[in-house]
C-alpha cells in the first residue's frame, strides 16, 4: 500500500528556454528604472484621477471604455499602498512621496513584457519556424513605441496583451481540436479565449475589434466542422454549444462582472453624479442620496417637487421659473406673451420647486391621507416661490419658433386666458393605474388644450434669460424622446397653505426615510448607455494625428520633458520596423490575391497544408491589423499615435511570417536563400541600431545636446524639443 514511498517522486517538465529568455529580456526592457521619471507623464494625468477615485471609492464616469482597465491600474495603486491623495491637474507635475509610482506602472509594464513571448508562441502555433517566431518576438521587444507605452500608467499595453492572449488561446484550442477534443486542455484554451476577449473589451472598446476577429475565425471553423461527415449530429451540436458558451456567454458574464465590481467599489457620490439619473444618484452615498433621504415615495396632490429633465443634455437641469418676464419684442422682431419666464436651470435653486395642484381644489397642501397622483390625471403645476401656474399657449417659443412658448401665467386682464392644465403621462409605467413615484417615474406633461408636450429644447437663452436653457411646448412629437421626460428628484409633502410659511418650508429638509436602491442591472444599463452616448467635446490637440500619418510614422508625441535638462520621452516608433511592417502587409495582400487567382485557375503553387497555414496567418495577423486600424478612418474623435499600437502588434507578427514564406517558397536556389538570409540579418541589425539610437527618447534617462537632438529629427514632421541656451 505504501509502495510508492520506496521510489522517488519524479516530475518532468518541458521548458522552452526561448520563452524564458524572451520573458526575461522583455521584463528587463520594461521594468528598467520604471519609476523614472517621478513625474506625471502625458495621459497619466487622465488615468491617475480615476485611480484616486477608486482609492476613495468615489463614483466616476469615463466614456473612453469599460472599467476593467481602470481597475487594473487601481489594483497597482492599492498593492502599492496609494491613498488617492494627489492632485492630477498638470503633465510634468512631480509625484509626492505618497504616490507609489513603481507600483502604479507595474501592471502595464508586466503586460508589455509578457506580450513578447506571446508573439513567439503565436508564430509557433501558426506552424512557422522557431526562427520566424523569434523574429516576431524580437520585433515586439525592440519597438521603441511599444516600450514607451508599456512603461507608463496607460492602457494600450494591457489591451495588446489580452488581444494577443485571445489569439494565442484560440490557436492552441484549434490545434488541439483533432487529437484531444473535449479534453481538459481543450476546454482550458477555449474558455481562456473567451476570458481574454472579455478582458480586451473590458479595457477599451477597441478590444471589440479583436473579439470580432476571433469570432469570425471561429465561425469559419465551426462552419467547416458542421460539414465534417465523420462527426455525429450530437457531437457537432456539443461542439457548437461549447463554443457558444465559451465565446459568447462567458465573455458577456465576465463583462457584467467588471461592472458589478466597479459599481460595488464606487459607492460614494462624486463630481460626475449629475450626468446620471436621479435614481442612480440617490443610490450613491452622500450627494443627492443625502438630500433626498427620507422623501415620500408617491407624489400626491399638494406635493412640493423639483423636476429634473431625464435627457440631461446639453446639461443636467431642473424646471425653473423666476419673476423676470419674456421681452415684449425679441431681437428678430417677433413678439412674446410678456409672461413669466420658464427655463431649465443647471443648478440647485429654491426657484426649482413646484407644487402639484388638483385643478378642482384650491388647497396647496397634502391631504390626510395623501391622495397620490396617477397616470392620466390632470394636474396644475404651481411655481413655489411666485405661486404662478405653468402655462403654454399658441405663441412661438423664443428660440424655437416651431414650438410653443412655456411660461408662468400672469393675468394682465387682456384676452389671453390661462391654459394651465396638464395631463400626466408616466412613460415607464407598468400599468395605466400606476402612481407617480419620486425619482423612479419618468413622466411627460401633455398640455390639455393644445396637446403640446413640455420639452427641453437645449438652446441657451440670451442674456435676458440669464443664459439658462429654453423649455418649450412641442406640438409635433411623433415619438417619445428623453428631452420630453421629467422625474421628481426632491420631494416633500406640503403642509403650509400660507405663502410665507410655504417659502420657509421650501428651504427645510425632509425627515421621513424611504429606500430607493436600484438593482445592479438597472444601474449597469444606465451606466453603459451613458458611456456609449456621452460625447465629450473633442478639442484639437497639439499632438493629435490622422490614421494616414500612423503607418509610415509621420508623427510623434512628446510625452515628457525634464524641467531643467533636455532629457525627454517621446512616443516614437522604430521607423525601420514600422516601414517594414507596412511593406510586409502590402506584400502579403498581393501574394494572397495572386495565389487566390491562380488557385481559381486550378494552379496550386502551394501545397494544401501550406496554403491553409498561410491563409490562417493572414486572417489573424493581417486581419487583426485591418480590424484594429481601418475603423479609425470612420471615427469623428481626436486621435493619437498610440491608437495605432494594437494594430501594429498584429502587423509585427506578420513580418517574419512573410519573410519565411519568401525564403521557403520564392527563393528557388540555395544562393538566393543565402543572399536573402543575409539581407534579413542586415535588416534586423538596422532595426536594432535604430532602437538603440532612439533609446534616450524612449527612456528619457539621458540629456542630449542640441546637435544630438537635431540629428534624431529624421523627419520634418517629428517634434523634437530643443531648449534654447
Description:
With 725 residues, the chain is of the alpha+beta class. It folds into 4 domains: 35-99 and 266-288, no CATH class; 113-153 and 540-724, no CATH class; 154-261, no CATH class; 303-493, Trefoil (Acidic Fibroblast Growth Factor, subunit A) (Trefoil). Helix content is 44%, strand content 12%. It has 21 helices and 14 strands. Helix 4 (101-125) packs antiparallel against helix 5 (130-142), helix 7 packs across helix 18 and helix 16 crosses helix 17 (608-629). The N and C termini lie far apart (85 Å).
Shape: elongated
The share of residues in helices is 40-55%
Largest sheet: 6 strands, antiparallel
* Number of spatially distinct domains: 4
Summing up helix and strand content along with how strands pair, one would put the structural category as alpha+beta
Proportion of beta-strand residues: 5-15%
- Helical segment count: 21
Oligomer: single chain
**What does the radius of gyration come to?**
32 Å
User: Whole-number average pLDDT?
Assistant: 89
Which helices and strands, and how do they pair?
Layout: H1 17-31, H2 44-56, H3 68-79, H4 101-125, H5 130-142, H6 144-150, H7 156-175, H8 177-180, H9 184-203, H10 207-226, H11 233-265, H12 278-282, H13 288-292, E1 303-309, E2 318-325, E3 340-345, E4 353-357, E5 378-383, E6 390-396, E7 404-408, E8 422-426, E9 443-447, E10 453-460, E11 469-474, E12 486-493, H14 499-506, H15 520-533, E13 557-561, E14 568-571, H16 575-600, H17 608-629, H18 645-666, H19 670-693, H20 695-699, H21 706-711
Antiparallel strand pairs: 1-4, 1-12, 2-3, 3-7, 3-11, 4-5, 5-8, 6-7, 7-11, 8-9, 10-11, 13-14
Family: Belongs to the glycosyltransferase 39 family.
Pathway: Protein modification; protein glycosylation
Organism: Octodon degus
Amino acid at each position: 500500500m505504501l509502495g510508492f514511498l520506496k521510489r522517488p517522486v519524479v516530475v518532468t517538465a518541458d521548458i522552452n528556454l526561448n520563452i524564458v529568455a524572451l520573458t526575461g529580456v522583455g521584463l528587463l526592457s520594461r521594468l528598467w528604472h520604471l519609476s523614472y521619471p517621478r513625474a506625471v507623464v502625458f495621459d497619466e494625468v487622465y488615468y491617475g484621477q480615476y485611480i484616486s477615485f477608486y482609492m476613495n471609492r468615489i463614483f466616476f464616469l469615463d466614456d473612453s471604455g469599460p472599467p476593467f482597465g481602470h481597475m487594473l491600474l487601481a489594483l497597482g495603486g492599492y498593492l502599492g499602498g496609494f491613498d488617492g491623495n494627489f492632485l492630477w491637474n498638470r503633465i510634468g507635475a512631480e509625484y509626492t512621496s505618497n504616490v507609489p509610482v513603481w507600483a502604479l506602472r507595474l501592471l502595464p509594464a508586466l503586460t508589455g513584457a509578457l506580450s513578447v513571448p506571446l508573439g513567439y508562441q503565436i508564430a509557433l502555433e501558426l506552424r512557422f519556424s522557431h526562427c520566424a517566431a523569434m523574429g516576431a518576438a524580437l520585433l515586439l521587444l525592440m519597438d521603441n513605441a511599444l516600450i514607451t507605452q508599456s512603461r507608463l500608467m496607460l492602457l494600450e499595453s494591457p489591451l495588446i496583451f489580452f488581444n494577443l492572449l485571445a489569439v494565442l488561446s484560440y490557436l492552441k484550442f484549434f490545434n488541439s481540436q483533432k487529437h484531444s477534443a473535449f479534453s481538459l486542455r481543450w476546454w482550458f484554451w477555449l474558455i481562456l479565449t473567451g476570458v481574454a476577449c472579455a478582458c480586451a473589451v473590458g479595457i477599451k472598446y477597441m478590444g471589440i475589434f479583436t473579439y470580432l476577429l476571433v469570432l469570425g475565425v471561429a465561425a469559419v471553423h465551426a462552419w467547416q466542422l458542421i460539414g465534417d461527415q465523420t462527426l455525429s449530429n450530437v457531437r457537432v451540436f456539443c461542439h457548437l454549444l461549447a463554443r457558444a458558451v465559451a465565446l459568447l456567454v462567458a465573455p458577456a458574464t465576465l463583462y457584467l462582472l467588471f461592472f458589478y465590481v466597479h459599481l460595488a467599489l464606487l459607492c460614494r457620490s462624486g463630481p460626475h453624479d449629475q450626468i446620471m439619473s436621479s435614481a442612480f444618484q440617490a443610490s450613491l452615498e452622500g450627494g443627492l442620496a443625502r438630500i433626498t433621504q427620507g422623501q415620500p415615495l408617491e407624489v400626491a396632490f399638494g406635493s412640493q417637487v423639483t423636476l429634473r429633465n431625464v435627457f440631461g443634455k446639453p446639461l443636467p437641469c431642473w424646471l425653473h421659473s423666476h419673476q423676470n418676464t419674456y421681452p415684449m419684442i425679441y431681437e428678430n422682431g417677433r413678439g412674446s406673451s410678456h409672461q413669466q419666464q420658464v427655463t431649465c436651470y443647471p443648478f440647485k435653486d429654491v426657484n426649482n420647486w413646484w407644487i402639484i395642484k388638483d385643478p378642482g381644489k384650491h388647497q396647496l397642501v397634502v391631504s390626510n391621507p395623501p391622495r397620490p397622483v396617477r397616470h392620466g390625471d390632470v394636474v396644475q403645476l404651481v411655481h413655489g416661490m411666485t405661486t404662478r401656474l405653468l402655462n403654454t399657449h399658441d405663441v412661438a417659443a423664443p428660440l424655437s419658433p416651431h414650438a410653443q412658448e412655456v411660461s408662468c401665467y400672469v393675468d394682465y386682464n387682456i384676452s389671453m386666458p390661462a391654459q394651465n392644465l396638464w395631463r400626466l403621462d408616466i412613460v415607464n409605467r407598468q400599468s395605466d393605474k400606476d402612481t407617480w413615484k419620486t425619482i423612479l417615474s419618468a413622466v411627460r406633461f401633455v398640455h390639455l388644450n393644445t396637446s403640446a408636450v413640455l420639452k427641453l429644447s437645449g438652446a441657451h437663452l440670451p442674456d435676458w434669460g440669464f443664459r439658462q436653457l429654453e423649455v418649450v411646448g412641442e406640438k409635433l412629437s411623433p415619438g417619445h424622446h428623453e428631452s420630453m421626460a421629467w422625474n421628481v428628484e426632491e420631494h416633500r409633502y406640503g403642509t403650509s397653505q400660507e405663502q410665507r410659511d410655504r417659502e420657509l418650508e421650501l428651504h427645510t429638509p425632509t425627515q421621513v426615510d424611504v429606500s430607493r436602491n436600484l438593482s445592479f442591472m438597472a444601474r449597469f444599463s444606465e451606466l453603459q448607455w451613458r458611456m456609449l452616448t456621452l460625447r465629450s467635446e473633442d478639442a484639437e490637440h497639439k499632438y493629435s494625428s490622422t490614421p494616414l500619418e500612423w503607418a509610415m510614422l509621420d508623427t510623434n508625441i512628446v510625452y515628457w520633458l525634464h524641467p531643467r535638462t533636455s532629457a525627454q520621452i517621446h512616443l516614437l516608433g522604430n521607423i525601420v520596423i514600422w516601414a517594414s511592417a507596412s511593406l510586409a502587409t502590402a506584400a502579403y495582400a498581393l501574394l494572397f490575391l495572386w495565389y487566390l487567382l491562380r488557385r481559381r485557375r486550378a494552379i496550386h503553387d502551394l501545397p494544401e497544408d501550406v496554403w491553409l497555414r498561410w491563409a490562417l496567418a493572414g486572417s489573424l495577423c493581417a486581419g487583426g491589423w485591418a480590424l484594429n486600424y481601418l475603423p479609425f478612418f470612420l471615427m469623428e474623435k481626436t486621435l493619437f499615435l498610440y491608437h495605432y499600437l494594437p494594430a501594429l502588434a498584429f502587423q509585427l507578427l506578420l513580418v517574419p511570417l512573410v519573410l519565411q514564406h519568401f525564403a521557403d517558397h520564392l527563393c528557388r536556389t540555395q544562393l538566393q536563400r543565402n543572399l536573402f538570409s543575409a539581407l534579413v540579418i542586415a535588416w534586423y541589425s538596422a532595426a536594432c541600431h535604430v532602437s538603440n539610437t532612439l533609446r534616450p527618447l524612449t527612456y528619457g534617462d539621458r540629456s542630449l545636446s542640441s546637435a544630438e537632438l537635431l540629428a534624431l529629427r529624421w523627419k520634418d514632421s517629428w517634434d523634437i524639443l530643443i531648449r534654447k541656451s
